[in-house]
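Subject: Sanity check before I submit

Could someone independently write out the structure tokens for this chain? I want to compare against mine line by line before I put it in a report. The sequence has 194 residues.
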Amino acid sequence: MDSHLIESKLKSQELFRGSFLHAFRDTVALPDGSEASREYVIHPGAVMIVPLLELPGQPLQLVMERQFRYPVQQVMLEFPAGKLDPNESTLECAQRELFEETGYSAKQWAKAGVMHPVISYSTELIEIWFAKDLSLGERQLDPGEFLEVITQTPEALKQACLKGEVTDGKTLTGMFWLQNYLSGQHDLTWVNAA
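---
Independent answer below. Compare away.
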């Protein structure tokens, strides 16, 4: 049905193999029969967590991170996230990343959706998980990982997004899912942590 849009790989050339990313340049046949070049990065996939911190008598808080991101040379406000390890389910990854980066564990989890942050040049997909019934332990950052854990209300995060202070695509997408969940426009199916 979409044959008038589909490109077909004719040949592939490896450009770079790093410890994290793997880059290729492919020659493709276009729908009209002509050829073109496509450069892209293979990514192992990732998760992002929207942690809901519900404390008695207090407004809902979101557990977030501030972290320097070298490619853009800025400290960014983000939801916790991380890449999948080999043979790891996305829920296992979400549980691991939330604990390692923030120290929080969650009793309940719900998958919200999937996003492809850069479809023009990467295979990366990020699965979005919500976490609640949080308890705090001692975080276990990876070597060379430096980040600050903060909490924000959903309204404060929304305002930061609207003012352009949050530019991270996955966090903006997380805010979209959060707004829809809090407004009752999107139901989540919660499961207990294993």
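---
OP: Matches mine. For the report I'm noting this point. The longest strand covers residues 104-115.
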